[in-house]
């Protein structure tokens, strides 16, 4: 016997929301990326939970794919932040609005 | 029973650390809390029976990705001023957070009461969560996804290389005045 | 069958020789020089004439020679096929015969011109087209020749293209002809609608079988009007005659061949050809008659006041063509056809004579600068004299005979307006021809250049044509006067006369003789008056403003220009600048501007702050969620 | 009552569990670290032809104890410009992973302890079936301690040292991981116990020699031992990331280093040297040792092997000079990783042919 | 006998040619010759199929949605492919030595254009058709945008956006047909032949037909272009490089009329019947407007561009009047227009390359300086004004004659269209007069050179075709007639009696 799936989902969703909130309110790029990881982690939780619910490894497999993406994303994101820092001597995201319409 | 209470404790810890990640002002703190969060998450996965996933959570997230973060944070070694951690869009995010959570509850409600029943236990000889079972799935049904993930990783490696690479300044041979330049 | 293929070859040869020649002279003319071209062109034409003559004398008519299918038209089709019947053979004989003579003449006339080869190329092409016109057994085939001669006319009028005026004249000719062709096309469409075929024998057979519904008659009437329009365009009848005077810009042999002898008579040919169709609509024939009479009259009035020798002849041609249409309209196609042939001879003669004069005077065309050439160019003078007498209707020259036949028919029709117009025109014809004759050959020489007689190639042609003009009358000498009416008999299988003269032969003879005497008197009167009027011509005349409308051709050109051309231009400009440029492009660019304006507002959403975008994503997600929840059944 | 309690299988299980923990952690923290410090200094003396510590106790055996007491009693110095929480967190973080890694290391075949236990149990604290990955995961965490230590000290040398250390550890972790892949392939499992047991016929060192060649420098680098002790290169960086640390905080770093050494030595032996097996082709069963009775013999043999390996560490430290930093990186990325990849290829080929035959 | 593999070759060859050309490296004209050789090769390949009447190839592509990789070749498609390969060959040959900028890309783009056009013509599947229909724009967009004249960016944007916008409506229509069929039968299919067969026996309601028909017509009308959607054409033509104009006028415009004949009318005969009147009106307005506006132009290319509007008005008139003869004529006129207008653009290019101006008043008296040029120009003009004996006549005559017999719309439209025959002469002769007659207006004109061997190679096949098609059109019309008869057999029940 294990916890109900609703708990897992709730947790997953809550973590995701924390991440998303952080993503929205933080101003520096590093924190943003961190919050992004949190969001992905939240999603993963749902995968693993469902995997357990159905006793099917598919969810876990998806978990793998997600962390692959997460790893790539953070690596590239950090490289971008480094370049951005070289450029602007700052990691504040409101400095990065060259695409302003 | 034990498992459920463990689960709730773990979940509370996960939530707590997640909140700290989201709202602590400095990135290094966020990062540290996130690492902790990952540990608790891994514990949760263990409780859910996915041992391998739990280990991978630590290996990849805590051991690799977050190291990178910490590494970059201390490489930049920023002043609090530069970090600019006064938050923006505060009210909207809070509103949304509450909205989302209530929506979640609604959806759970809609999905039906069976979601609130504990999940069925694993069979004693279940291979669930083991490397073998996962590998079986990964290399048969999901082999294309697996390969694709490999390609994405390769692309990320190349991409990061490209981004980080700075052309070394060409070395210009210096000649003293009295020396003749090679023709 | 064997004979068929044998004749097929000969017919093909007759038509293709000029075409091949055309290509040859155009491409090789410069390289091999004038002699090559002149011998080649004349001999090709002569051969073509010989071929036609061979068929004329040996073949049993009507003879249809089919080559290959040209246009598939659903159930029926149009072939390249020749129809040799009296009508077409007679005209092709004239075309190739007179054509050969004029080619010969032109070798002298065009001597030394830079475009010698090109000229003969066009001329040969013209003969080819004309043969196609006459010999084709289908309307589209006829149309091919019809447009082909128009093209050659265009090319030859603007032959000396370095002068912008010549080019304009050519263009005008082509465009006005096209207006006529529009009618022709329309006629073809209507005919096809009714008959389901475009082959002339088929159409005519169906017509003769009769039996049309009222609906069909509407279409056939429309077809007839279309054909009349086409004929008017080609034969320079009111209202489409304006191009012919300008066409005199071309070299004189061209004027002789195309704008006097052959091409302009194509309209008459067409009307004769399609006569059974016209017989369904006598009112249309009446229109033709009036059109012809009025054209004849007005052209004559203008001709009187022209000073350019070729312009006089041009208006005279229009006038004579009017006669022919008058005859056609009255239902006397044989008379029209007869006049067509004699006119071909004497008008060619007159033009070539005029050409000889112009050639002798180094391209001087104004009669006020001529005079007294009688002694300097004796052969030309005598030949011209015959021509003038023939056109003026002095017996027994050919012009008299043919014109008399037309007048006879007019008289027989009892429409006194037409009678008055016809006789007045006859008088005026004699008058202006006399004027031309006297101003050119009598009195003092008023020119600047030393005049000289033309070379033998030109004069010999004049002599031959003079003989023909004089003697062509016997082709259709009336029974009443002891003739055999050869042409009438020959054509009787193809066309039919509507006017049946009085039964009593004695009465008929009496009235015809009276008419002949009257008409020849009218002609002689005209000549005589002209003689006295211009005997001592000094170079100045018609200064009175009252004559101005005549001198300016009734301002018809100006009128057309003001009403049609100017407005069309304005309309074109309006379409371009306003419809295209302002309205359509305005709508287009306006919508683009609208999009651009909208985007300037919308782009303000694009703050560049990534987190705001994320917020939008959230909001979108929320909406989706709401939708999913409320949409749940 | 006491007897019944003692004979209760649950109690025996718990007791066995507690015993394993005590044994292993006692060995690691109580024996290996102090003894190694002593050995290191004595061997250094030996190699450098001098005495080394010989005043405190016989042969200076109590030197480590004295040092420990000194470190514990020293004033707790705290520089002013540090980042306080992380400054304290770093040494703790350095010890925790080191200790955690020990949890899954098996030190003998499953046994009933001479009939004491109802069923054979593993001589391993946590019976994790993904032990190898767990070890990798845990050892990857030790970077944090170093990184944070350098950064929290707010000292140029420290930061440089920690940057060096982090980069070095990440790089060599990769090489080590790839080398281990071939071991996993050879053994067909990620359970450390199973890996050890799969070597009864033949140690992995023979088919996996290339992997060992990669793994060996990698573990040296991961433990920041000479010739890869760039992070604490005294000549350049004072002592790198722990420059600002003293007293017990420094002691913890010091401790962690030796515990780590023990861990990687154990791993190396588990992976390549047959764990507790007697000799490459000779298992204990083959030479006729009754493991039911003499269950402790493999365990002792295993610890002996670890001791030998630790000695090898020390030997290398005092024998080889330090690399330059760029050499270090290029060895890691340009030599070891390609070799490791090649090795995977070779191993798989080998396995395929072996399976086929 | 050729089998369906031939279709694959026909389909794939230009794509491969594009690849090969884009990969050629080398200085100077190497790429040009490779490209011309490939174009020639393709032309020969196309010629091999001369005897083919109907070929079909089908392979499943995406079954759940009924999408198939279906190729279908009949005479309607074949002659346009022939024309396309022929004109592409000539256009590329013309560009030899004329285009200096980015030669490789230039040639590759032309092959790509050819590829998309051929693919579009061969497609049996509506989705494929739409894809290639849009893809056609891309090479042309670059050809105008890179190698064009002064205002090329404006022109190319206008061209692209306008035609693209129109096509989007067609996409809606396509989807509608597709879904309608699914709703009716429960099977997904986009195969045109299948749809045709189905709708013959089970026609849609007229209201549905009308809407879908209008979307199709809008797209095709913009491409043709039918008044009032024609304003992109003059701009595009004026700014396009010569070879681009040739292809644009010669082939791309034909795709619109082809679409009408192949898709719009056969699929929705009743709607076509219902809208015939207004559409004929637009065609006639196009004919007359095109002619009158052409007359007012001072830019030679613009003049010819407007003449295209006029000519294509005839084609659309012939189509919407819906008679067999009219359709035969319309089809033939499409090819005629490709030849004569293509040649005219080449001739203008010949002038432009020497004087670098397209202003009519910059020339004059060319007949004296360039007699052979004038000859060709006159021949092409005659073809353009539909002089009997040239190809133009056959087309226009059949269109008008056929349309006049129609019960679909009033015969008055035909009469008005015939007025266009008169106007056609006016502007073409106006051009000839200004260009060739009179005295050379400028001293620069005197130094111009007449046709060289290269131009002769270029023009002589065109001239030959003009006369061959004018005198022996049955060679083309035979197969087309059969095809048209087939179509009319199916749509006849829906036409007005």
Give the low-pLDDT segments of chain D.
none
Main pleated-sheet profile of chain D: none
H/E topology pattern of chain D: HHHHHHHHHHHH
- Give the total of beta strands of chain D: 0
Radius of gyration of chain C: 31 Å
Mean pLDDT of chain D: 81
* Quantity of strands of chain C, as a count: 2
Task: Please give a handful of descriptors for the protein shown.
heteropentamer, B: 183 residues, mainly alpha, Four Helix Bundle (Hemerythrin (Met), subunit A), 1% strand, extended, D: 357 residues, 12 helices
Overview of the molecule:
The complex is a heteropentamer of chains A (101), B (183), C (633), D (357) and E (497). Chain C has 633 residues and is mostly helical. Among the domains of chain C are: 281-541, no CATH class; 559-630, no CATH class. Helix content of chain C is 73%, strand content 3%. Chain C is built from 23 helices and two strands. Chain C has a two-stranded antiparallel sheet with strand order 1-2. In chain C, α12 (282-304) packs antiparallel against α13. Chain D is mainly α and 357 residues long. Chain D has one domain (2-157, 187-213, 237-320). The mean pLDDT of chain D is 81. The radius of gyration of chain D is 21 Å and the shape is globular. Chain E has 21 helices and two strands. Chain E has helices at 4-23, 30-48, 75-95, 103-122, 126-135, 137-147, 152-185, 192-201, 206-223, 232-239, 242-267, 269-295, 300-321, 324-355, 366-369, 371-384, 391-404, 412-436, 443-446, 453-471, 474-491, and strands at 54-62, 67-74. Chain E has a two-stranded antiparallel ribbon. In chain E, β1 and β2 (67-74) form a beta hairpin. Chain E is globular. Chains in contact: A-B, A-C, B-C, B-D, C-E. Chain B binds chain D through residues 28, 32, 35, 51-52, 55-56, 58-59, 62-64, 67, 70-71, 73-75, 77, 130-131, and chain D through 86, 89, 128-130, 133-134, 136-138, 140-141, 143-144, 147-148, 150-151, 159, 162-163, 166-167, 170, 190. β1 (2-4) of chain A pairs antiparallel with β1 of chain B, so a sheet runs across the interface.
Walk me through the topology.
The complex is a heteropentamer of chains A (101), B (183), C (633), D (357) and E (497).
Chain B: H1 2-23, H2 27-47, H3 51-76, H4 80-83, H5 90-111, E1 118-119, H6 131-139, H7 143-164
Helix pairs in contact in B: 1-2, 2-3
Chain D: H1 2-7, H2 9-47, H3 63-73, H4 84-101, H5 131-153, H6 156-187, H7 192-197, H8 209-222, H9 234-237, H10 247-272, H11 296-317, H12 325-356
Helix pairs in contact in D: 2-3, 2-10, 2-11, 3-10, 4-5, 4-10, 5-6, 6-8, 6-12, 8-10, 8-12, 10-11
Chain E: H1 4-23, H2 30-48, E1 54-62, E2 67-74, H3 75-95, H4 103-122, H5 126-135, H6 137-147, H7 152-185, H8 192-201, H9 206-223, H10 232-239, H11 242-267, H12 269-295, H13 300-321, H14 324-355, H15 366-369, H16 371-384, H17 391-404, H18 412-436, H19 443-446, H20 453-471, H21 474-491
Antiparallel strand pairs in E: 1-2
Helix pairs in contact in E: 1-2, 1-4, 2-3, 2-4, 3-4, 3-11, 3-14, 4-5, 4-6, 5-7, 6-7, 7-9, 7-10, 9-11, 9-12, 10-13, 11-12, 11-13, 11-14, 12-13, 12-18, 13-14, 13-17, 13-18, 14-16, 14-17, 14-20, 14-21, 16-18, 17-18, 17-20
């Amino acid at each position: 016997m294990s916890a109900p799936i609703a708990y897992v989902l709730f947790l997953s969703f809550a973590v995701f929301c924390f991440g998303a909130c952080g993503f929205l309110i933080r101003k520096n790029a590093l924190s943003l990326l961190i919050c992004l990881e949190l969001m992905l982690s939240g999603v993963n939780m749902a995968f693993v939970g469902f995997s357990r619910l159905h006793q099917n490894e598919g969810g876990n497999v998806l978990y793998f794919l997600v962390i692959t993406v997460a790893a790539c994303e953070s690596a590239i994101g950090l490289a971008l932040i480094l370049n951005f820092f070289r450029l602007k001597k700052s990691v504040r995201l409101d400095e990065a609005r060259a695409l302003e319409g | 029973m034990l498992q459920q209470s463990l689960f709730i404790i773990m979940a509370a810890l996960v939530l707590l650390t997640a909140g700290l990640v989201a709202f602590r002002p400095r990135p290094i703190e966020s990062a540290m809390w996130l690492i902790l969060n990952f540990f608790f998450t891994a514990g949760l996965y263990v409780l859910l029976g996915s041992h391998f996933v739990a280990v991978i959570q630590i290996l990849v997230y805590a051991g690799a990705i977050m190291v990178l973060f910490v590494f970059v944070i201390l490489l930049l070694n920023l002043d609090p001023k530069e970090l600019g951690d006064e938050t923006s869009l505060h009210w909207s995010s809070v509103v949304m957070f509450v909205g989302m959570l209530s929506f979640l509850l609604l959806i759970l409600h809609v999905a039906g009461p069976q979601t609130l029943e504990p999940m069925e236990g694993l069979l004693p000889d279940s291979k669930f969560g083991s490397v073998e079972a996962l590998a079986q799935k990964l290399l048969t049904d999901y082999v294309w996804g697996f390969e694709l993930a490999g390609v994405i990783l390769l692309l990320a490696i190349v991409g990061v290389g490209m981004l980080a690479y700075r052309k070394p300044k060409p070395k210009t041979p210096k000649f003293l005045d009295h020396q003749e330049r090679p023709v | 069958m064997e004979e068929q293929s044998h004749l097929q070859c000969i017919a093909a040869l007759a038509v293709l020789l000029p075409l091949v020649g055309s290509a040859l002279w155009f491409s090789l003319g410069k390289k091999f020089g004038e002699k090559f071209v002149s011998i080649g062109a004349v001999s090709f034409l002569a051969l073509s004439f010989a071929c036609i003559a061979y068929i004329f004398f040996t073949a049993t008519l009507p003879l249809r020679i089919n080559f290959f299918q040209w246009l598939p038209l659903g159930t029926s089709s149009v072939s390249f096929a020749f129809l040799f019947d009296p009508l077409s053979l007679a005209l092709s004989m004239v075309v190739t015969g007179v054509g050969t003579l004029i080619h010969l003449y032109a070798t002298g006339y065009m001597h030394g011109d830079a475009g010698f080869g090109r000229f003969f190329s066009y001329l040969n092409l013209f003969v080819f087209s004309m043969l196609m016109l006459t010999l084709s057994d289908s309307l589209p085939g006829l149309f091919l020749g019809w447009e082909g001669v128009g093209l050659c006319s265009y090319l030859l009028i603007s032959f000396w293209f370095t002068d912008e005026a010549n080019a304009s004249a050519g263009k005008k000719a082509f465009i006005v002809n096209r207006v006529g062709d529009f009618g022709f096309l329309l006629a073809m469409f209507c005919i096809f609608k009714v008959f389901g075929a475009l082959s002339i024998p088929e159409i005519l057979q169906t017509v003769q079988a009769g039996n049309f519904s009222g609906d069909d008659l509407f279409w056939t009437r429309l077809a007839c009007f279309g054909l009349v329009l086409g004929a008017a365009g080609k034969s320079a009848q009111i209202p489409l005659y304006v191009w012919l005077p300008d066409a005199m810009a071309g070299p004189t042999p061209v004027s002789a061949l195309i704008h006097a002898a052959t091409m302009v008579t194509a309209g008459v040919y067409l009307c004769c050809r399609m006569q059974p169709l016209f017989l369904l609509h006598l009112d249309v024939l009446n229109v033709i008659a009036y059109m012809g009479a009025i054209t004849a009259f007005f052209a004559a009035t203008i001709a009187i006041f022209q000073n350019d020798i070729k312009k006089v002849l041009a208006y005279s041609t229009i006038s004579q063509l009017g006669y022919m249409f008058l005859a056609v309209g009255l239902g006397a196609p044989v008379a029209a056809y007869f006049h067509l042939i004699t006119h071909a001879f004497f008008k060619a003669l007159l033009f070539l004579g005029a050409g000889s004069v112009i050639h002798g005077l180094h391209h001087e065309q104004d009669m006020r600068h001529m005079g007294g050439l009688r002694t300097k160019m004796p052969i030309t003078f005598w030949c011209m004299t015959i021509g003038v007498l023939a056109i003026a209707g002095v017996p027994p020259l050919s012009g008299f005979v043919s014109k008399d036949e037309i007048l006879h028919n007019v008289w027989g029709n009892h429409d006194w307006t037409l009678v008055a117009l016809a006789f007045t025109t006859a008088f005026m014809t004699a008058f202006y021809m006399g004027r031309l004759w006297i101003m050119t050959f009598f009195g003092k020489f008023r020119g600047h250049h030393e005049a000289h007689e033309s070379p033998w190639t030109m004069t010999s042609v004049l002599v031959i044509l003079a003989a023909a003009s004089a003697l062509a009358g016997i082709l259709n000498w009336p029974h009443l006067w002891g003739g055999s009416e050869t042409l009438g008999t020959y054509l009787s299988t193809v066309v039919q006369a509507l006017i049946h003269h009085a039964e009593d032969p004695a009465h008929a003879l009496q009235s015809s003789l009276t008419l002949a005497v009257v008409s020849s008197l009218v002609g002689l009167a005209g000549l005589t008056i002209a003689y006295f009027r211009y005997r001592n011509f000094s170079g100045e005349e018609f200064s009175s403003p009252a004559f101005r409308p005549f001198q300016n051709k009734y301002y018809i050109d100006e009128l057309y220009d003001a009403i049609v051309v100017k407005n069309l231009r304005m309309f074109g400009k309006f379409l371009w600048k306003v419809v295209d440029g302002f309205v359509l492009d305005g709508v287009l660019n306006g919508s683009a501007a609208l999009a651009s304006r909208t985007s300037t507002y919308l782009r303000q959403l694009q703050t560049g702050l990534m987190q705001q975008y994320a917020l939008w994503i959230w909001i979108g997600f929320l909406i989706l969620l709401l939708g999913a929840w409320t949409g749940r059944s | 009552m006491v007897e019944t309690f003692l004979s209760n299988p649950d109690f025996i299980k718990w007791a066995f569990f507690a015993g394993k923990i005590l044994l292993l952690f006692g060995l690691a923290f109580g024996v290996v670290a102090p003894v190694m410090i002593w050995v290191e200094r004595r061997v250094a003396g030996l190699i450098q032809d001098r005495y080394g510590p010989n005043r405190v106790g016989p042969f200076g055996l109590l030197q480590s104890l004295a040092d420990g007491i000194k470190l514990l009693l020293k004033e707790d110095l705290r520089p002013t410009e540090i980042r306080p929480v992380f400054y304290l967190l770093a040494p703790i973080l350095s010890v925790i992973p080191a200790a955690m890694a020990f949890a899954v290391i098996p030190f003998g075949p499953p046994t009933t302890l001479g009939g004491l236990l109802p069923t054979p149990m593993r001589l391993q604290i946590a019976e994790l079936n993904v032990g190898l990955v767990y070890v990798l995961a845990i050892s990857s965490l030790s970077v944090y301690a170093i990184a944070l230590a350098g950064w929290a000290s707010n000292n140029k040398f420290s930061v440089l040292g920690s940057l060096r250390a982090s980069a070095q550890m990440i790089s060599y972790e990769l090489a080590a991981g790839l080398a281990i892949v071939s071991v996993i392939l050879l053994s067909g499992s990620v359970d450390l116990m199973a890996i050890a047991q799969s070597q009864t016929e033949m140690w992995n060192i023979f088919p996996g020699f290339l992997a060992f060649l990669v793994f060996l420098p990698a573990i040296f680098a991961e433990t920041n031992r000479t010739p890869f002790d760039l992070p604490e290169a005294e000549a350049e960086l004072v002592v790198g990331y722990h420059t600002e640390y003293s007293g017990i905080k420094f002691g913890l770093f010091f401790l962690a280093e030796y515990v780590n050494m023990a861990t990687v030595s154990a791993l190396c032996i588990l992976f390549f040297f047959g764990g507790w097996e007697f000799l490459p082709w000779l298992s204990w069963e083959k030479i006729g040792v009754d493991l039911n009775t003499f269950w402790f013999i493999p365990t002792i043999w295993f610890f002996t092997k670890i001791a030998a390996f630790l000695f090898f560490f020390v030997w290398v430290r005092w024998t080889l000079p330090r690399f330059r930093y760029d050499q270090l990186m290029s060895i890691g990325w340009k030599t070891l990783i390609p070799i490791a990849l090649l090795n995977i290829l070779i191993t798989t080929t080998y396995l395929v042919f072996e399976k086929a035959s | 006998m050729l089998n369906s593999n031939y279709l694959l070759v026909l389909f794939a060859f230009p794509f491969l040619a594009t690849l090969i050309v884009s990969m050629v490296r080398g200085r100077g004209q190497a790429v040009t010759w490779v490209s011309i050789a490939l174009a020639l090769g393709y032309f020969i390949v196309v010629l091999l199929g001369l005897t083919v009447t109907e070929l079909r190839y089908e392979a499943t592509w995406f079954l759940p949605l009924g999408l198939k990789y279906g190729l279908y070749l009949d005479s309607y498609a074949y002659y346009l492919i022939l024309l396309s390969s022929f004109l592409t060959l000539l256009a590329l040959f013309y560009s030899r030595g004329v285009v200096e900028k980015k030669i490789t890309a230039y040639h590759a783009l032309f092959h790509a254009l050819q590829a998309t056009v051929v693919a579009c013509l061969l497609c049996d599947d509506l989705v494929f058709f739409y894809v290639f229909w849009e893809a056609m724009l891309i090479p042309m967009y670059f050809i105008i945008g890179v190698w064009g004249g002064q205002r090329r960016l404006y022109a190319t944007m206008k061209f692209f956006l306008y035609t693209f916008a129109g096509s989007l409506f067609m996409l809606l229509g396509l989807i509608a047909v597709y879904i309608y069929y699914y709703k009716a039968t429960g099977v997904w299919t986009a195969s045109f032949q299948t749809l045709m067969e189905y709708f013959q026996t089970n026609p849609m309601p007229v209201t549905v037909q009308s809407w879908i028909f209008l979307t199709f017509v809008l797209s095709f009308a913009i491409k043709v272009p039918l008044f009032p959607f024609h304003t992109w054409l003059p701009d595009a033509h004026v700014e396009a490089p010569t070879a681009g104009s040739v292809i644009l006028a010669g082939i791309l415009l034909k795709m619109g009329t082809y679409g009408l004949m192949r898709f719009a009318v056969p699929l929705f005969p009743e709607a076509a019947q219902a809208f015939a009147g207004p559409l004929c009106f637009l065609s006639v307005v196009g004919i007359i407007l095109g002619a009158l506006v052409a007359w007012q132009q001072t830019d030679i290319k613009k003049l010819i561009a407007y003449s295209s509007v006029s000519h294509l008005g005839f084609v659309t008139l012939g189509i919407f009047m819906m008679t067999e003869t009219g359709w035969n004529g319309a089809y033939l006129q499409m090819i005629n227009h490709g030849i004569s207008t293509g040649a005219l653009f080449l001739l203008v290019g010949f002038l432009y390359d020497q004087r670098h101006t397209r202003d009519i008043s910059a020339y004059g008296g060319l007949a004296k300086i360039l007699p052979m040029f004038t000859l060709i120009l006159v021949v092409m003009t005659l073809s353009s004004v539909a002089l009997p004996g040239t190809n133009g006549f056959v087309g226009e005559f059949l269109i008008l004659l056929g349309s006049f017999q129609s019960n679909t719309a009033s015969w008055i439209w035909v009469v008005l269209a015939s007025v266009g025959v008169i106007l056609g002469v006016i502007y073409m002769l106006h051009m000839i007069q200004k260009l060739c007659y009179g005295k050379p207006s400028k001293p620069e004109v005197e130094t111009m050179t007449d046709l060289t061997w290269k131009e002769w190679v270029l023009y002589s096949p065109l001239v030959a075709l003009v006369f061959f098609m004018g005198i022996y059109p049955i060679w083309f019309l035979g197969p087309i007639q059969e095809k048209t008869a087939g179509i009319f057999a199916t749509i006849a029940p829906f036409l007005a009696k």
